Prior knowledge:
EC number: 3.1.3.12
InterPro entries: HAD-like_sf, HAD-SF_hydro_IIB, HAD_sf, OTSB-like, Trehalose_PPase
Pathway: Glycan biosynthesis; trehalose biosynthesis
Distance between the termini: 10 Å
Number of domains: 2
Strand order of the largest sheet: 5-4-3-2-1-10-11-12
Cofactor: Mg(2+)
CATH class of the largest domain: Alpha Beta
Mean pLDDT: 92
GO molecular function: metal ion binding; trehalose-phosphatase activity
Bound molecules: the ligand O=P(O)(O)OC[C@H]1O[C@H](O[C@H]2O[C@H](CO)[C@@H](O)[C@H](O)[C@H]2O)[C@H](O)[C@@H](O)[C@@H]1O
Amino acid sequence: xxxxxxxxxxxxxxLDFDGTLADIAPLPDAVQLAPGxxxxxxxxxxxxxGALAIVTGRTLADIDHFLKPLDLPLACEHGAHWxxxxxxxxxxxxxDLGPVLRALAELxxxxxxxxxxxxxxxxxxxxxxxxxxxxxxxxALTQAVAQVAGAELMAGKCVYEVxxxxxxxxxxxxxxxxxxxxxxxxxxxxxDDVTDEAGFAAVQAAGGVGVKVGSGDSAARARMASPxxxxxxxxxxxxxxxxxxxxxxDFVTAPQTAA
Length: 259
Ligand SMILES: O=P(O)(O)OC[C@H]1O[C@H](O[C@H]2O[C@H](CO)[C@@H](O)[C@H](O)[C@H]2O)[C@H](O)[C@@H](O)[C@@H]1O
């Protein structure tokens, strides 16, 4: 397993949010951004001439909230929404989620420790506060999703998500790579979850490198230990590309072991 390459102005950078830029928190709203991250993202966006995008399962509103005042290219809800700029965006067809929402209402009435996260194109069911309910969540959603045309169920970290079928981070990254300023660059995608595997496949098919954050099987060619390692790498890259002279004090090379 490789370390990620040094970032150059010829790269395009795609970054997952939860578990990659931000540490995993007990609840989705409890996420805290590390000091300096926004400044590093802004510097890298400029140094890459705009070729930096966030590729996430979160909603557009969540990312705009967490990364405010940055206005970065964004693919959210696992590719269901895609935004290059105010001039260019795309959205998956909407789903009739009635059967899913009814199943979730019934399940959460019995188990209030489960958390429903409504999104504009889908919905997530979080069981981080009740891991013993994973199987019950899976069974209820599998049955409900079968009643919704065009929907598919996806598993993430202590979460099941219902989203438009076919939408993926890989599809979103491929769409970015067809447009300036991303086209013609070597893509790097950093992600931590099984939901990021489609993104790793997309960048590697385009001659780039997927970077798996943390443990677990992955097709990514490179690996970093943790979100803290990713933030340190981004900080170092921002300093190098913007010509800052002193070395970053907090840069630590991540152990490069497979899970
Ligand atoms: O694609 P990502 O940016 O990694 O987003 C994936 C999901 O992340 C969020 O849930 C996860 O992070 C939470 C905060 O750390 C954690 O409490 C939860 O257990 C994780 O599943 C987010 O809430 C989802 O909408 C994203 O799809």
